[in-house]
Design brief:
It is a single chain. Helix content is about 75%, strand content about 0%. The protein has eleven helices and no strands. Helix 3 crosses helix 5 and helix 4 packs antiparallel against helix 5. The two termini are about 35 Å apart.
Length: about 250
């Protein structure tokens, strides 16, 4: 079994994400959708660190690396047919199916990574410190995501042209993407991080396991949203433009 790539700094995170994107394009794997958007977020975080956007740049880089390494560990475990967290297993399982639309793949990845991994990484980076000191920079991540919503939204509209008409009609961003990824998920991740940081190490693994099962259970709403929404998603799926590789490129560039 090959060793799992783990990053030591944010530049290595970017390099490994680019490797995953390249592999996904070669294999026509929907797993590349999440990796492509994740690369955009990581690049924006790097820019923020370089421009002193965050209160503590070195700490933010450490958080970014700890956070990303959980995704990388899960991804490469899956690639080698090894077990990952249940939350990530649910996300990866979707990649083998035809009908899920690009947005579902993105939301499944966000569910596992934000609702589970982010809180763990935040607690780790603030080990033996007051986690409330991270609150300001944690909230600034929301600003980073907000700056990318329009771009991702327009990419999805290129993949599914009807979305552009819907966006013009509603005059607002896609609630499913913004509400899930930024407000609800990140608020929950911060609460989880604080609860985790207050526990003795002997109790943390059990608490993480419980959280993993809850997050995995949430994924059912994304993967199986009911017959009416599922029918709509099938219409969207049939209307999506381009191959998997072309969709990955659209999200990446």
């Amino acid at each position: 079994m090959k060793p799992t790539p783990q990053a030591q700094n944010i530049d290595e995170v970017i390099r490994i994400l680019e490797d995953i994107i390249t592999q996904s394009k070669t294999e026509s794997s929907p797993l590349g959708y999440f990796a492509a958007v994740y690369l955009l977020v990581t690049s924006q975080v790097k820019k923020g660190i370089e421009e002193n956007f965050f209160d503590d740049g070195p700490r933010m880089e450490k958080l970014d690396v700890l956070f990303a390494n959980r995704y990388l560990a899960a991804y490469y475990s899956h690639q080698q047919s090894q077990s990952a967290t249940l939350s990530w297993e649910k996300s990866f399982a979707l990649s083998s199916k035809y009908w899920p639309i690009v947005l579902q793949h993105l939301l499944m990845g966000m569910n596992a990574h934000i609702n589970l991994d982010l809180g763990i990484a935040a607690a780790q980076v603030m080990k033996d410190k007051n986690i409330d000191d991270l609150d300001g920079d944690f909230n600034k991540i929301n600003e980073v995501l907000s700056s990318l919503v329009h771009k991702v939204q327009q990419d999805l509209a290129e993949i599914w042209p009807t979305l552009r008409f819907i966006l013009k009609l509603t005059g607002k961003v896609d609630d499913a993407l913004t509400d899930f990824s930024m407000k609800l998920a990140r608020d929950g991740a911060w609460k989880f991080a604080k609860q985790l940081s207050e526990l003795d190490e002997s109790k943390q693994e059990e608490f993480i396991s419980l959280r993993d099962h809850k997050v995995a259970d949430k994924s059912k709403i994304i993967a199986f949203p009911g017959w009416l929404v599922s029918t709509l998603f099938k219409v969207i799926r049939l209307g999506e433009r381009g191959s998997i590789s072309q969709k990955i490129v659209k999200l990446r560039d």
